[in-house]
Amino acid sequence: MYNHPSPTFLDRGVLTCYSLPVRSGTFLIPVPAPWRNMRSSLAIPPLTPDLIQVLIDADSIRRRVDDLARQISRDYADSPQPVILVGVLKGSFIFLADICRRLDIPHVVDFIALSSYGLAGSEQSGNVRMLMDTRENMEGRDVLIVEDILDSGHTLDYLIRNFTARKPRSVKTAVLLDKPDRHVIPVKVDYLGFGIPDVWVVGYGLDYAEKYRTLPYIAEMRPVTA
Ligand SMILES: O=P(O)(O)OC[C@H]1O[C@H](OP(=O)(O)OP(=O)(O)O)[C@H](O)[C@@H]1O
After folding, report:
1. How far is the CA of 208 from the centre of ligand 1 (A)?
2. pTM given for the model
3. 98, 148, 151, 178: which is the annotated catalytic residue?
4. 82-130 pLDDT per residue, tens
């Protein structure tokens, strides 16, 4: 079983420290000056006029990611080799980073980058093209695709077919958000965070024209008028 140490911030009056549990006790590591204002930089960014409402707050995301990590750890407990987690760039980078740090099974992290031809506004065309492939050899391995959102289904359908051809032991999917009203192709989701309505969402990795990816919550965007 993997036991990751969990450092926490301690405020010692004049000195802010990082507390790192170790076998023989606890290390206190002083935090350099620019990080002392950590608390204010962790403040929740306010909604901008582009954003209508927070759909899923940071705490609910954290709790759901905890649940999914527990489920995944249980299901892959007997995996003969470390599970390959494949993050689909760019949108999944925060979900992947959070979920992999909560797993207590051996795993490795890999990435793939795709693009879609003929993108018109927010519509996926179905012509998925690979921009950057994974590095791990998937033959005989358990592969878990980690995606931020399932919309039309074209991306996951492409990935499942592409990875299955590499003769893995298994291919499964972990998806943070699903928009069931938008499906064009049926895709099996093995681990789902939240179902959401057909609205454009941003935050926690998801963007609109590269904006808002690093918001700690999922927010609904105001529809963009031309
Ligand atoms: O189910 P689908 O209709 O295929 O849509 C889902 C995909 O679309 C988004 O990626 P996008 O192409 O916007 O790239 P990004 O992750 O870099 O933002 C999202 O991150 C999924 O990968």
Report:
1. 11
2. 0.82
3. 151
4. 999 999 999 999 999 999 999 999 999 999 999 975 544 455 667 899 9
